[in-house]
Amino acid sequence: MPEGVGSDPRQNTTPARWRVLGHPDGILAYQVRCIVEHHGWSEPAEQESHKVVLGRSGAYRRRVNGRTRFADATSVLMLRPGDELAVAHPLGCGDSYTCLEVDPEVLAARPDADGWLHRTGWDGSADDRLDLAHRLLIAELRRGVDRFEMAERLHRFLDRLLQHSGGSGDGEPPDAALDRTVRRRPATLAAHRQLADRAREVLTAGDFALGLNDVAQRLGTSPHHLSRVFQRVTGSSLTAYRNRLRVRAVLDTLAEADGPPLRELASAYGFADQAHLTRVVRDHVGHPPARLRALLTA
Entry's Gene3D superfamilies (predicted)? Predict the structure, then answer.
């Protein structure tokens, strides 16, 4: 993934080291470690995008729209375009964090993001479960996943984050309202089942280069809605279902005596790389592709 040294993306002034984790379908994920050169306040900088900043280590002070708060490894900050941010490091220890920048079109397709879009941002803290989900997400992105899975993992993390922050604006978890809608309206449940079946059709067609956003566009819905409905109807995530399809296709190819090398196989079926292919296949069937090729072609 791209890495570099530049200004801190929180406010574009403080020096920082950064590493891009991925940029699928309107969500940019990256890690940042701030380089402390002085302990005083940076110049206030106006934000240009919707960002969520999740602390991982260290501590600092931040001033958002004139309000000053102390931030540490438990802190979560949701920023909007136009917010004015400055930071200071009075303890001198620096900090590291994960940042997700989300396109407004992506947020507009999510009913739980209304508060983030149209009211105020959110400045709070992550509980232990949200913090672990954040760290597991980053570990998976750093290990290497394809664009489709990356998009769905990021949307699912946003589900948890926005529910935790009350991002729907009324204090009610988004799933609760959807559950009541499904129970009260059988027609909605039927429509959800139809959407899940249509998603299966698109994924079964075998174009594994399609991203989550591509599939949603073909079905005339949003990635967020499609992901949640598919999980609710089938009990499986889109990524898990797609991986089952890919593993079966890989097994067919591995059974061919003159099949392509594993790196070409990984590219053909949309895996991030050969290591990603090996990990997914082993997780599903208990053996790595090289062993399966020997077994299936014997």
Answer: Homeodomain-like (1.10.10.60)
DSSP secondary structure code for residue 258 in this structure: T
d(CA 119, CA 16): 30
Q: Greatest CA separation found in the chain?
A: 70
Check if the beta carbon of residue 116 is closer than 8 Å to that of residue 78.
yes
Q: Whole-angstrom Cα distance, residue 62 to residue 109?
A: 30
Q: How far is Cα 117 from Cα 127, in angstroms, rounded to an integer?
A: 23
Architecture, CATH, for domain 241-297: Orthogonal Bundle (1.10)
DSSP state at residue 65: T
Rounded to an integer, what distance in angstroms lies between the CA atom of residue 71 and that of residue 66?
A: 15
Model confidence over 196-248: pLDDT tens digits?
A: 999 998 998 878 889 999 999 999 999 999 999 999 999 999 999 999 999 98
Distance CA 247, CA 46 (A): 47
Say which CATH topology domain 3-146 has.
Jelly Rolls (2.60.120)
